[in-house]
Amino acid sequence: MVVHPASGLGRAGRVAGTVAAKLRTVVDDLVTVAAGTVEESQRLMRAAPDLDLLVVVGGDGSAHQGVQFCADTGTALAIVPAGTGNDLARTLTGAPRDPLDAADALVTAIRDGRSSMIDLGRVENGPWFAGVLCAGFDSSVNERANRMRWPSGPRRYDLAILAELARLRHGRLTVEDDNGRRELDATQIAVGNIPYYGGGIPVCPTADPADGLFDVTLVRRATRFDLVRMLPGLRTGNHVDSPLVDTSRTRRIRIGEANGWVAYADGERLGPLPVEVTCIPNALKVVGQAT
Length: 291
Prior knowledge:
By secondary structure, the protein is an alpha+beta fold. Helices cover 30% and strands 31% of the residues. The chain has 2 domains: 2-113, 3-Layer(aba) Sandwich (Rossmann fold), CATH 3.40.50; 129-281, Tumour Suppressor Smad4.
């Protein structure tokens, strides 16, 4: 069990002992480690012996590190959500939002032997991702939200959205995928293995982490007024009904350069475009019930 104590403003550290006690009722051997940084988390995971299950107690950033360790290895991953967004835990394992309730659900899943295989995205010459890759307005919001210390949870992203509206930029985007190649003026693009990012925003509302395909949501050139009109629909997924939004599905996608846009995946900064990603079916075993 890897704990990121600072996740969720310290919530992960506060619940770790109780989570460990619950897990010990259903496993033969449990080793717990605490990681204060991404680098430390990676080092501890690399040093770990062969594992049946890696339990991550933390937020989406912590879960992302767990995905890197478990992807394509046969080691199962479970997530006890104790961060601010918790999009991966909500979607990949169906975990309740409260970490102790999630721990109880995980204990039941282990006892019942309940697990499933899900797809992952793989960045060419880069990391795996389980959630959403985005670029454009989305990634600008992500960069701002990651710098913010207040408020926590979804409201942080709401405020970041409003702040980025004031400096809205478009870009000439080249997209190559299973549907062909196109070049257009765009505001943002999201490539989803799961529906949610940003603390529950269903940017790719029909994405299924077990169908072997990404869902792509692309917003063509939009004004500030256009985006403001879309905002109410973001929380419900109705933004895809806008005439400025294109949706598609693909196994592979390459997103070309566009005015210095950067790409984010699972809330982690990848760097400037271009980026090419492929959906790898059944790449990760998760304990719980994928939804």
